[in-house]
Design brief:
flat, Glutamine/glutamate ABC transporter, permease protein, transmembrane transporter activity, cell membrane, MetI-like fold, mainly alpha, AA_ABC_transptr_permease_3TM, 219 residues
């Protein structure tokens, strides 16, 4: 039984590797775009400008209130119907996860920046620093310790949520696993493999987040 299971995994390895590559590709791209977008979002909200606050707040609430799966369907099926714009499934998943992730990362960044004493901002402005210098040299470096653990947690959620891409036709590792199960009926083995894959990818990030949080709390 064990040998047949290993043989199945060996025979299916090319498919599984391809699927894993797509899953990791979606996740890594979404993490990069979420980080950039979230940083911009957090900085803009921390400025306290009302004309920025309202649209950014609406964006946040939309992505908090509506599940990621619904956004995937809206972008993948809705855009071609209403706007004649068709996005490949892979990039649709990257786009939706990036927008959702940016809202989550952005709130973390905003909270981290607001936790810095107001005197730091006032002192920076008083000595003639521009906004770019103020954030780049004073505020963001101080906020980094507060931001890193929760942002890493957002990254792990992005990786796990990427499995929803299968529902719009992305042949990721989850879809490959389903295809193998349909052929072989080895559901326990394949789902066990998928569990192990996501555990290996996500656990080091979660562990790093906890270690950093403990280290910086005691610093």
């Amino acid at each position: 039984m064990a040998s047949s299971g290993l043989e199945l995994l060996w025979v299916s390895a090319p498919q599984l590797i391809t699927g894993a590559g797509r899953t990791l590709g979606i996740s890594l791209l979404a993490i990069v775009f979420s980080s950039v977008g979230g940083l911009c979002y957090g900085v803009l909200r921390s400025l306290g400008k009302r004309w920025l606050e309202i649209p950014l707040r609406i964006y946040l609430e939309l992505f908090r209130a509506i599940p990621v799966l619904v956004w995937l369907y809206l972008f993948f099926f809705g855009l071609p119907i209403f706007f004649g714009l068709s996005i490949p499934a892979f990039w649709c998943a990257v786009l939706v996860l990036s927008l959702w992730g940016a809202s989550e990362v952005g709130e973390v960044v905003r909270g981290g920046l607001r936790s810095i004493p107001r005197g730091q901002r006032e002192a920076g402005l008083a000595i003639g620093l521009g906004l770019g210098q103020l954030y780049g040299r004073v505020l963001l470096p101080q906020a980094l310790k507060r931001l890193t653990p929760p942002v890493i947690n957002v990254y792990t959620r992005l990786i796990k949520t990427s499995s929803l891409a299968v529902l719009i036709g992305v042949i990721d590792i989850t879809k490959v696993g389903q295809q193998i199960i349909e052929r072989t009926y080895e559901s326990v083995l394949i789902y066990g493999f998928l569990f192990l894959f996501f555990f290996i990818v996500c656990y080091p990030l979660s562990a790093a987040s906890r270690v950093l949080e403990r280290r910086w709390n005691h610093a």
